[in-house]
Amino acid sequence: MAAVLKGSVPFNYPPASLAWLVWGLGAALYLIAFYQRVAPAVLVQELTSEFSLSGAALGNLSAFYFYGYVAMQIPTGLIADRWGPRKLLTAGAALTAVGTLVFALAPTTYVANAGRLAIGAAAGVAFVAMLKLASHWMPSRQFALSSGVALFVGVMGATLAGAPLRMLVDAMGWRNAMVVSAALTAAVAVAIWLIARDDPAERGYDSYFPHDTGRRGGGSMWADLRDVLGYRNTVLLFVIPGAFSGIVLMFAGLWGVPFLTTHYGFSTAEAASLCSVLLISWSVASIAYGPISHRMGGRKAPYVAGLLATTVLWALIVWVPGWSRPVLVALLVALGVAGAAFILNFAFAKESVPARLAGSVSGIANMGVMVGGMVMQPLVGWVLDRHWTGALTPGGARLYDLDAYRSAFSLLFVWGAIALVALLLTRETHCRQAA
């Protein structure tokens, strides 16, 4: 039991083990969300053959996840601020299981798209609800840390969607593998409902959340949305993170595997593992950015440094051909480390508005992250189709040459330039919560 004294009044805060358990149940759904986000990367051959997909259609099928996910971010933030995360997480996990089952049994592309849309919308509650739990169950100084650990947990889900999923698909087929995924997700929904609580007070402990933060629940959700959008950083921090996530989610989530198999001679399993390496370095490095920015006393400097490094490393991967395998691995690891600076977006956004709007601004910030994958996966596929020469793989999937990938991947440099301007226009919070 974590009892502390503040002045002469003892506070009975929840033990760290219980706090991290409650938070971890939300993280379990986020792990599943990341798993579902990148699973199509290792199902390219199966989905292309099963549904006779072009590059643009495949990108669109994968991106239907992001359409649902992004659409849910603002509603999720507003609802989390008012109704609490427990109900959101339970419903999200249950509906994710249903969407996964629909996708697994889909007879047509339209039904598969609907399943992916449902998965994205349902799993889209996980990250914002998890941040909301952190603001109640953990001290404020751990918020940036919990955001980084959340990404690490999520990327563990993406890692499961790499080589392990590939082996499962090889053993039982992609449809049966998705049915198993649906069953496990349903079990997570039950666990969240039985164990998680919105606030430590429901378990007899004091809360870390600053409840005395002004109006709460007296106005409409639209009023809260208007309030949060009235802060300049909110809009800017929506625009910025896609310059990071657009690269990682596009490459590791879909187009990295065919690029690496076609132009570097990797097997599908090897390419999926290398994409997992990118995601792992991205997640591990994200844990460090919060403490680093706290020591520096600001968010902007490490954020700018990460954006510039990400742009340079992406240029080396896209425009310099023929890297040896060890050098290519090193470049992708470095890209993940640099790109992990995006995690500062969440602490930066939370500190830019009053605490009562934390869920709403987190939803908007997370929407900005997901827009990167939502836009870039189908857009890259469209550009690849425009440069397709008519070549096919033995399995019947379209085969794109190096010039096609360069043209498609170069789209990210435009977003990087816009993000840099937006980042320079943000107001520094100096790691302190707005009044």
Describe this structure as you would to a colleague.
The chain is globular and about 65 Å long. It contains 19 helices and two strands. It is 74% helix and 2% strand. Strand 1 and strand 2 (9-13) form a beta hairpin. The protein is mainly α and 435 residues long. The chain has helices at residues 16-38, 44-51, 55-83, 85-105, 109-123, 126-137, 143-160, 163-172, 174-195, 221-229, 232-239, 242-263, 268-296, 300-319, 325-339, 344-351, 358-386, 402-409, 411-425, and strands spanning 2-6, 9-13. The protein has a two-stranded antiparallel sheet. The chain has one domain (13-198, 220-425): MFS general substrate transporter like domains (Growth Hormone, Chain: A). Helix 3 (55-83) packs antiparallel against helix 17, helix 7 packs antiparallel against helix 13 and helix 8 crosses helix 9 (174-195).
Features:
435 residues; mainly alpha; Growth Hormone, Chain: A; two-stranded antiparallel ribbon; 19 helices
Structural topology:
Layout: E1 2-6, E2 9-13, H1 16-38, H2 44-51, H3 55-83, H4 85-105, H5 109-123, H6 126-137, H7 143-160, H8 163-172, H9 174-195, H10 221-229, H11 232-239, H12 242-263, H13 268-296, H14 300-319, H15 325-339, H16 344-351, H17 358-386, H18 402-409, H19 411-425
Antiparallel strand pairs: 1-2
Helix pairs in contact: 1-4, 1-6, 1-7, 1-9, 3-5, 3-17, 4-5, 4-6, 4-9, 6-7, 6-17, 7-13, 8-9, 11-17, 11-19, 12-13, 12-17, 12-19, 13-15, 14-15, 14-19, 16-17, 17-18
